[in-house]
Amino acid sequence: MAGTRRSPPEVSRDRPLPPRQDVVGARRAARSGGPEAQSPLPPLSRRALLAGAGVALVAAVTGCGRPAASTSPGPLRVGAIPDQDPEVLQRLHGTVADAMSRALDLEVEYTPVTDYAAAVSLFRTGDLDLVWFGGLTGVQARLQTPGAEPVAQRDIDRAFTSVFVVNADSGPAPSDDLTALAPLRFTYGSETSTSGRLMPAWFLREAGVDPQGFPGGPGFSGSHDATLALVASGSYQAGVLNAQVWRSRTAEGAVDPAVVRYAETPPYSDYHWLLGPRAAERTGVPGLRDRLLDFFTGLPADSPVLELFGAEAFVPVRASDHDRIEEIGRDLGLVS
To answer: Which among 25, 151, 186, 204 would be 20 to 30 A from 241, CA to CA?
Structure first.
């Protein structure tokens, strides 16, 4: 069941390069409608019957004078980095939780988080079992959580890109020359976003632009949608965001005409699902990673999950697929 409470992060400026985020590039279009009405006497699932039998057994053992510990399985707790507007993420991951619950015969709960750093922290402490991370936050979470396993990523995540945008009234004409961005007021997305900060900063530096040297220091909007809004308003003359979010919002007609595409980065590996080391034991599902991989890679082409994620398929992913992200993160001081 999906949670609903979440407050968007505030915009910050001129901050150092601490380890904190990164993006889902999902489409805004989603299934409409609220939760289905529930009967006061819902049918029992096979899992509920087994859980009931377990409770009866525990009661019998305890009645014989022997202490017994509860072994009731818990729900699979799913989270995601807050890279887009909260309502978009709620529809996206609520749909994923529902589909996963039906496919695995398992209770699944989506829990919103406040920022990228919170997603990493809650995964590390075991409060979240399965999280949709960006490349950088996934590396951070995996290194901080021994035994964590990558599960799957979208087909588009194997060669993901970022888009630099400018305000049409104050920014330069579209070009591949990133040095023209140096004198502009510039905002990244979240501080630990792969597509909204890490890789753009790397490509800026490769082009000879100090990624921290923008007038007044760079801003950090907190999400890709917030970056678009800040550049549209003129608060910043330029910014950078997830290319998939840019294309999705453009197709929806949701991009303010004041914002224009300036340049696009070379590709890199980005988003992926990461499973916690205690998830299988806590949920009582042996081989949970393999079952999740089968679920994601087996989604049909017309699945609402694929539509919302802006992908044609999910594919397997390995930790080594993000070796470059880890290397660049260490180089920029975002991975320790």
So the answer is: 151
